[in-house]
Design brief:
The structure is a single chain. α5 (about 115-120) links the parallel β2 (about 95) and β3. This protein has about 575 residues and is an alpha/beta fold. α1 (about 1-10) packs antiparallel against α3 (about 30-60) and α7 (about 175-190) crosses α12. It has helices at about 1-10, 10-25, 30-60, 65-80, 115-120, 140-150, 175-190, 210-230, 235-265, 275-285, 285-295, 300-330, 360-370, 375-400, 400-410, 415-435, 435-450, 500-510, 530-535, 545-555, and strands spanning about 90, 95, 140, 160-165, 345-350, 450-460, 475, 480, 485-490, 520-525, 535-540, 555-560. It is elongated.
Length: about 575
């Protein structure tokens, strides 16, 4: 099956579909980034297809899923071989934390019900498609251990395996509604404030699977529409907050969908398991052993176990962990002092637009181009630019390089020397005033630490002249000129965007012996993802939605630098 699914995943039709999905997110970042995400999607598709194939194989043979099917296969192997030895098979139900030993609440890792309990406490689970009177067969971990030890002392007949159920449903049943009530009681008294806040706990009505599935379909459609709309929204803090809210909703839907798929058959289960043999073994123990090492599943109350032992045991460590993460996140929004480095061994690369300075290439073009034009030509230039703006925006969404070339074609006929002189005499103080104070402070901190500071931008070279005192190296777009120094409207080389930035950094580091793993990168746009991937300390600065999501998934630092000061009105005379 794996070979078959692998072959299907590499068909042209499937690869085309996966590539287009990757391009929808990463086209601007470049071909390599897109291909990497395409391969990630292919591997994930193979995994999902194999899970689906295995599940259907198990269900076609009468099992709920591969988990129970594989256990049945293992038991069959033991039974087939037991003609030569004594065999006992212990079948635990849902094993959860210990009631008593080695201490109340002990267990390793999260088990079946734990993520659902936590999600409800956080206010992330408004409903669940379980049958309210279906029994969820839970057994404490120490009861299973005690039963196994007792079973090891039995002497079954060779060739006649004995079976023991470690379960509670026959004599101490706990229904899904009972679990819900215990969990609600606990979180009513111990609110999960970091996730739930003032949001009231959800009231489950147990409507069944179909209404919940319909709700999930509608919610998923709403999230997809929301993501489509915010892709056209202007960049800003509110847009990022809206995107984060949509991401949270998507994760909740994925969580609910995962557990509906994983436990769907169990949630509506009408199966009942008896533990007669296990109970008889318990009663056969010496009275002292029954008190210390017993495993009678009817010997405890669910209210005590759920509300005083199990739920606190799984929530308390998570509360402490999330509190620590919150403290670290708070620290990550501010920079620690940089460690001094041997000069020339560490670099700090900065993007310009939206990172160091609040501007864009269209705006900077108007700054530089309009002053040399007559009043009438200025009006015509602005009108022409406005008419072509939708085309430019479309090009920018598809390919950053194409967009930059389109804008720079408008420099045709400009005098490069006059442009440089105008920047030096008039624009320089205005450009510097538009810089982020946080960016200036951080650049100086890197220089004080002995780091090589690099500005990487698609802006034309003349407009970077005011930054020459701040950066050791500036990589910018170079306008091509004729023999008289007049701009042709073309560039002398491709603009430094997307993967060309990471390639440039790698080459520069090799030439100068710089350790990129210790180096830094600062950018605000998803198109700069390759540049940030190239360094060991990437920082997303007031990022767009694409970069924000990538930074969160990779665990990168995300900082919000305050808005830069507005640009004063330019005198065109």
């Amino acid at each position: 099956m794996k070979e078959h699914v692998e072959a299907r995943s590499r068909s042209s039709e499937q690869l085309t579909k996966l590539r287009k999905e990757a391009e929808a997110l990463h086209r601007q970042a470049g071909y390599l980034t897109t291909s990497e995400d395409t391969e990630r999607r292919r591997q994930e598709w193979v995994k999902q297809e194999l899970v689906a194939a295995g599940t259907e194989r198990a269900r076609s043979l009468g099992w709920t899923d591969v988990y129970t099917f594989a256990k049945a296969l293992a038991e069959r192997v033991v039974a087939d071989l037991s003609g030569d030895f004594m065999a006992s098979i212990v079948r635990p139900a849902i094993v959860e934390s210990s009631l008593t030993n080695p201490y109340p609440g002990w267990i390793e890792g999260f088990k079946m019900a734990d993520p659902i309990i936590l999600a409800y406490g956080r206010g992330q689970l408004p409903e669940f498609p379980a049958s309210p009177d279906a029994v969820i067969d839970i057994i404490p971990c120490d009861f299973v251990v005690n039963a196994i030890v007792a079973v090891c002392a039995t002497t079954p007949e060779i060739g006649q395996p004995e079976y023991y159920h470690c379960s509670s449903g026959a004599r101490n049943p706990l229904t899904f509604r009972g679990v819900y009530e215990h969990v609600r009681n606990y979180f009513s008294e111990h609110p999960y404030t970091s996730g739930q806040g003032s949001t009231p706990l959800a009231t489950w009505n147990f409507p069944g699977a179909e209404p919940v599935e319909m709700f999930m379909r509608l919610a998923d459609k709403g999230v997809r529409i929301g993501n489509k709309l915010i892709s056209f929204a202007p960049r800003g803090k509110k847009t990022r907050q809206l995107a984060a809210s949509l991401d949270k909703s998507r994760k909740q839907l994925e969580f609910l969908g995962k557990y509906m798929t994983l436990y769907g058959e169990y949630l509506q289960s009408e199966l009942h398991f008896v533990d007669d043999c296990t109970l008889a073994l318990h009663h056969s123990l010496h009275p002292d052993d029954r008190d210390r090492f017993g495993f009678d599943s009817a010997s405890f109350e669910w209210k005590h176990y759920m509300e005083e032992v199990h739920i606190p045991a799984i929530t308390d460590p998570v509360r402490r962990l999330e509190a620590a993460r919150k403290r670290r996140k708070g620290r990550s929004t501010t920079f620690r002092d940089l460690k001094p480095a041997e000069p020339g061994t560490v670099l700090a690369a900065f993007d310009l637009d939206g990172t160091v300075m609040a501007t864009n290439v269209v705006e900077t073009y108007l700054w530089a181009r309009l002053p040399e034009l007559s009043p009438l030509r200025r009006i015509g230039e602005v009108a022409s630019l406005a008419l072509q703006l939708p085309m430019y925006l479309g090009a920018e969404r598809r390919d950053r390089g194409v967009f930059l070339r389109s804008i720079y074609r408008r420099y045709a006929g400009a005098d490069l020397a006059a442009l440089e002189s105008y920047v030096d005499e008039k624009l320089s103080p205005l450009i510097l005033d538009r810089m982020s104070p946080d960016a200036i402070r951080r650049i100086r901190e890197h220089r004080d630490a002995g780091h090589t500071t690099i500005l990487m931008t698609g802006v034309i070279r003349p407009l970077t002249r005011p930054f020459e005192g701040l950066f050791d190296t500036i990589v910018a777009a170079e306008l091509a000129t004729d023999e008289n120094g007049i701009c042709t409207g073309f560039l002398s080389g491709p603009p430094m965007v997307g993967e060309s930035r990471s390639a440039w950094l790698n080459h520069y580091a090799q030439l100068h012996g710089i350790n990129l793993a210790n180096s830094f990168g600062y950018a605000d746009s998803h198109v700069d993802l390759p540049m940030l991937n190239a360094v060991g300390n990437p920082v997303a600065v007031s990022p767009d939605i694409g970069l924000m999501r990538a930074a969160k998934s990779k665990g990168w630092s995300i900082v919000e630098w305050p808005e830069m000061s507005p640009l004063p009105r330019l005198k065109m005379s």
